[in-house]
Amino acid sequence: MKDEDEVHKHIMNALRNTQLDLRFPVYHDRVSFPNLRELGPVEMDEIFRRLWPGKAITNDLVADDIFKKGFKERAKSILSDLWSGLDIKDHHFRTRLAPLNKKFPSTPMPDQIRPIIVSSPIVKILETRLVHKLQAYLRDKLHRSQLGFTDGMDIYVNIWRAVKRIEELRDRRKHVYCLFLDFKSAYNTVPHSLLFDKLRGILSTEEIELLRAIYSRMSINIGCESFQPNVGVPQGSVISPSLFNIYAASFLERLEENGWGIHDLLAFADDHLVINITKSSLRLAIRLTMQWCEEVNIQLNPSKSGILEVPPKGGQLTMQVGSCFEGIPIVDEYKYLGLILDNRLSGAKHVNKLFGWKDANGVKHKGKIEFIKNNLCPLIRNISLDYRVNLWQTLIRPLFTPLALLGNFLCQTSKKELERKLKKSMKWFMGLVKSVPDDILFSLVSINFDEWARIESERAYLKWQARLSKTWVAHLPKYKVICHVKYLPREVAQFVNLQCALCPKCKTILTPLHYNMHMVNVPNVSVLLRELRMCFENERDRAYNRPGRMELIEVLASKVRGYIDVMKNFLQR
Fold first, then answer.
1. pTM value?
2. Of 79, 114, 188, 385, which residue is the least packed, with the fewest Cβ within 10 Å?
3. What is the pLDDT of residues 327-349, one digit of tens each?
4. Nearby residues of 534 by Cβ (< 8 Å), 6 or more positions away
5. First-residue to last-residue Cα distance in the chain
């Protein structure tokens, strides 16, 4: 289908089927805005602090430049009467639909898009008034097992909790049945009328009326298509994650009432994991889930949910992978919050997805790291080594963080394999060949997988304890990957690779000593780095005409090129 209007029509029909439900009250009239207490300067500052410019263009064409530093004070002054009960024009509530393809690069079906709602800055300011109270409720009163979009929490806390709990049960010789639940378009299936009921006692009557007034005017638009939903919290809204957490909290409460402990319930927004040690409790968990979904209008997606059995160490599986249990497929791996868990908690499946794997037919599939590296090759080739390390920290390190959390529970052999893969990814990004020894790699950049794993676990533990005690962690440990020399030119990678090349005469791997044996005088990496550091400091400390970054790098590069030429001449003899 290529006709734009037809595409818009099919997308909106799919959304209408979900977000316009005549079983629940519809909006026949606009709800009047309540007369709320005027906010003081500090409270307005807090609202504007949470909102950022540079977002998508809105239907009413009100620019989010009002959130820029130079315009904030004037905007706060103009918009100070938003709370006085004035009727705000309807065109500010005409949201624009930005459909994202969840099946990229494949062509999606109409129900396989993520409907991002682009709303006016005016609406965002109105909604953000409620953020402080909603966040306070999430922090202090929401079920402890729900960590999604709660202050100070992140996905790594739940990854650590899941792995730790499973390993504890395995140590007690228990079979662990992990029930992963996927709710279909969860945010889009929350009925407004039921949500307002849940908010009583959390927000004041006037604040609930403010939300009702916003939703009674809000319409979703794309092209010539438009409709007004009575179901769903808009994805893209600053308060939607909090509203969903509050609406779905009854699920965790029900499971706890039926015997599950807080350590066996893990939730991050709409991602839920229920840990069981018997098939009867697994069956009950599925039945309670089905009942709850029916009551609150949330749709379970059985095909994307999964049961992962993790047997005791040395034990055998008791459930057949590929079959179903109470309508939920039994799987041998499941991706939970970015970490691919398998039956042995080895991390091998996650590593395969990062570095590539071969399927049953022997076909090689590229991994995520190789994909990133290949797409960045033209850029990486021309930048300094310290910038390459920065890129690695930004793009690759987060892929290893779940493995660092898992690493605390692995045997030494498995942990060494993860460390080997970590070093491989760093060599890739730094342009170093595989034969470069670890001591040379670590002389350029320091990283210790054991220490990183320990610190990540400590961070997760401290955050979880803070969640349980309703407190805040003042100081969290942080593991730093350090590049030892700033302004390190890309020629250093070539220098290191030549020092680890194959000797054309002796057919062995070269070293600085081996070069010297052939009367080729080149320093080792440590000496070179010392020379570069001294050269850098001399150039930087010049009283006049201090060079910029590119000039400094060129000065250091010219020094390295001299050694490179000497080594190349020897290898080409």
1. 0.91
2. 114
3. 999 999 999 999 999 999 999 99
4. none
5. 62
Q: How many Å is the Cα radius of gyration of the chain?
A: 29
Q: DSSP string spanning 442-467?
A: HHHEE--HHHHHHHHHHHHHHHHHHH
Contacts made by residues 276-282, CB under 8 angstroms, sequence distance 24+: 276/176, 276/177, 276/178, 276/179, 277/169, 277/174, 277/175, 277/176, 277/177, 278/177, 279/177, 279/318, 279/319, 279/325, 281/177, 282/177, 282/179, 282/307, 282/325, 282/326
Amino acid 74: pLDDT: 84
Q: 3-state SS of 118-176?
A: ECCHHHHHHHHCCHHHHHHHHHHCCCCCECCCCCCCCHHHHHHHHHHHHHHHHHCCCCE
CA 355 to chain centre: 19
Q: Could you tell me which of 481, 458, 485, 489 has the C-alpha nearest to residue 552?
A: 489
DSSP-assigned letter for residue 23: T
Would you say residue 105 has pLDDT above 90?
no
Give the model's confidence band at 95: pLDDT under 50 very low, under 70 low, under 90 confident, else very high.
very high
Q: Determine the pLDDT at residue 545.
A: 65
Distance CA 311, CA 175 (A): 5
239 phi and psi, to 5 degrees?
-110, -5
Cα maximum dimension of the chain = 91
Q: Backbone phi, then psi, for 464, in 5-degree steps?
A: -65, -40
Q: At what angle do helices 155-171 and 449-469 cross, to 10 degrees?
A: 100
15, 98 contact by CB (below 8 A): no
Residue 56 burial by Cβ neighbours in a 10 Å radius (0-12, 13-18, 19+): exposed
Report residue 92 as tokens.
């500010």
Going by C-alpha positions, the residue among 140, 187, 247 that lies closest to residue 471 is 140
